[in-house]
Amino acid sequence: MTQRPAAAAGDKRRVASGLWQVTENDLESIAIGAGILGTGGGGNPYIGQLRARQAIRQWGPVTVLAPEELPDDASVVCVGGIGAPTVGIEKVRDLQSYYALRAIEDYTGATATALISNEIGGSNSVEPLIPAAKAGLPVVDADGMGRAFPEFQMKTFFVYGVPCCPMAIADEKGNSAIIRETVSPVWAERLARALTVQMGCVACYAVAPMTAEQVRQTAVPRTLSLARELGDAVIRARNEGDDPRAAIFGTCPGKTLFCGKVVDVERRTAAGFARGTLTIDGLDSCAGERMVIEFQNENLIARRDGAIVCTVPDLICAVTIDRGEPVTTELMRYGLRVAVLGFPAPALWAAPQGLAVAGPRAFGYDTDYVPLAV
Amino acid sequence: MTQRPAAAAGDKRRVASGLWQVTENDLESIAIGAGILGTGGGGNPYIGQLRARQAIRQWGPVTVLAPEELPDDASVVCVGGIGAPTVGIEKVRDLQSYYALRAIEDYTGATATALISNEIGGSNSVEPLIPAAKAGLPVVDADGMGRAFPEFQMKTFFVYGVPCCPMAIADEKGNSAIIRETVSPVWAERLARALTVQMGCVACYAVAPMTAEQVRQTAVPRTLSLARELGDAVIRARNEGDDPRAAIFGTCPGKTLFCGKVVDVERRTAAGFARGTLTIDGLDSCAGERMVIEFQNENLIARRDGAIVCTVPDLICAVTIDRGEPVTTELMRYGLRVAVLGFPAPALWAAPQGLAVAGPRAFGYDTDYVPLAV
User: Fold this and answer.
1) What CATH architecture applies to the domain A245-363?
2) pTM attached to this predicted model
C-alpha cells in the first residue's frame, strides 16, 4: 500500500507537473477512501467532508504536493484532530487545527510552508485542508500513519526519528497549550489526551515543523491520492452496478475477512477514547460463525470464532455489503450488514520499529503480529 | 493581616536597608508560620523546609525584597507547586519549580529578576526559595494569596488583573508544557490540573513575569516575614512555657473556633486534590459539641454543631493544643488534640472581586461570606 502510484498522468485535477488540487468535487471520494483506510476511526469522515467543503468553498481549493515536490527548505506542519469520535459527531470541530497551527508557529518562530495529515483515516484525512485553505498553504500527499491509529505517538514520523515536541493543542473556545518537552512520545500522548479531555474530548493539534527531507524519509507517501482513488473506485462500482469490494481491492490489495450482521456493539467513551467491542454473526459463506472486533477509536483485533485473523498494524475495516460504505466505530449499530476487510499494513509499520509502537503488544494484546496474507 | 509591619528595624537578618536573607535558621519558623497560614494545605511544610534547607545549604541564602524595594523594571515570576498534598508527602518534589521557571523564561523570552510565592501556606511558602537559591535570584516578601487555596486561579494577582497565562508546568521526569492562552483563569486551572494528574499528581508551575507595579498592586504583602514571625512566636512560647495560641494571636489577630479531639478523618485523593471531612469532638469548654470541617487541600468551611462558624476566604487552621503545631490535612489523624483557629482574610479577598473567586460560593457552598469577628 505504501507503493501506491501517484495520480495517473493526465488527471484533470493536475494543475502543474506533479500537482493536483483538492476541490469540492474530490471530497466525497476522499471521505469514502479515508473511511476505508481509517479502520473505523480517524473521526467521522462525513463530518470531515462537510467541514472541508465549507473551507474550500470559502477560501478556495488546496494544492497537493507529493513529498518529492516539496522545496528542500520546506517547513511542514502536521495537523490533526484528537479525541473520541463518539464525541466528535456531536461536538463538531471548527477552526481548532488552524488555531493550533498558529500556536506552534508562534512558539517555534517558524512559518509553515505546507501542511501534512497526521493520519489518512476518517476526518483526519481532510483536517489539514481546513487550515491550508484558510492560510493559503499546500498539503502534502502523505501522512503519518497510512491508516488511522488512536494515539498521538503512533506516527511513522516519530517512529523514524522526528521529534514529537513541541506540539500545540487548541480547542474551539480559545484555550491553547504547548507540550514543550516530554521524555517520550507516549508522554506527549498522555499530556495531550489529558488536555483534550478537559477541552471537551475533541481538540486539534499541530506539531513543530518537519523538513522536506524528514517528510520524505518518514511519511507514508501518496495516501491522499490513494484515498481519493479508493473513493472514486467505490463510486464508479456503485454507479455501474459492480461489486464495491472488487473495486476496493482493485485499488488497494486486501481481502474479505468476514461477512455478517452486526448483533452487538458495546461502546463507551473513556479516557478520551471511544473503546468497545463489535460482534458480527456470519451470513452466507460465514453463516454459523461469529467475528468479534475490539476497538479503541480504530479496530484493533479481529477474532473469528475466537481465532485471531487480523491485528494492528494491518487494517481492519467494516464496509456495508451492498454499497461498500465504510462504517466507523462511532456509527456502528445493530443490524448493519457489513463485510470486514483486511489490508496489509504500510511497510513502515510492519518493520520492528513500527510494531514496537503500534503492533498488537503496544495495545496490550499478548500476541505477535502475523502479517495478513492477501 | 495584610497590614502586618515589615520585619523590625535592626533585625540581624537585614543585609541592607529593607532587606533580609532567608538562611537555614529561618526555615523552621517559616514552616510553622506557613503551616498556620496554610489553613491545612499548601503542601507539607516540613518537607518544604527540608527541600529549602538543602537548596540554601547547596547554593546559599536567599535575599528577600519587600514589594516596594523591587526595581521598577523587575521581572517577577510566580512559582508554586500544584497537586494533592496527600501525594506530595510520598512523591517529594525536586527541582520542578526551577524547570518551570526556565520553561516560562524560554517561552516569554524574559529573564526573571525576582521570584514570588504563589501562596504563603505550607511548602509553597518556601517553594520559590529553591529556584531562587539555584538561580541566584531574590524572592519578594509577598504572595498571591496571603494563605493557601487549592486552585490555580485563586490568586490575588489574577483577581486584580494580572494575566494567568502563559504559564509553564513541569514535572521531575523531564516533561513540561506551556498553557498558552485560556478563556479564563478557571480554564488555566482545569488544564494545569489535568496535566498535574498525568504528571503524577505533583508538579510545579511558573507564571509569565509580572512587573514590580503589578506586584505592588496585587500581591498580599509581607507574608514571608509574617510566616517567620508567627513561627518565631510559637517557638518562643514553647521554649518559655507560654501558651502557643496566645503567641500566635499576638502576631496575627485571630480567635479559637473550637478545641477537641479528632474522631474522624474522611480523606480521598480525587481529581488532583486531597478532599475530605474532618470531625472533632469537643474538649474542655467545647465538651459535648462537635466541629465538622470540609477541606479541598485546604480547610474550607467549619461548622459547629451544624452552624457555620467560619468559611473561606477566612483562614481555618488546626494546631495541636499543647505545642501550637499546625496540622495539615494530609497528616490529620484520629486522636489528635487540636485547637481550630480562625483568622480574618486579607482585605483583597474580603472584597467582592475576591469573594467571587474564592468565597464560599466559589467552592459550591450555598452560603454568603460572613467575615469572622475577632
Assistant:
1) Beta Barrel (2.40)
2) 0.89
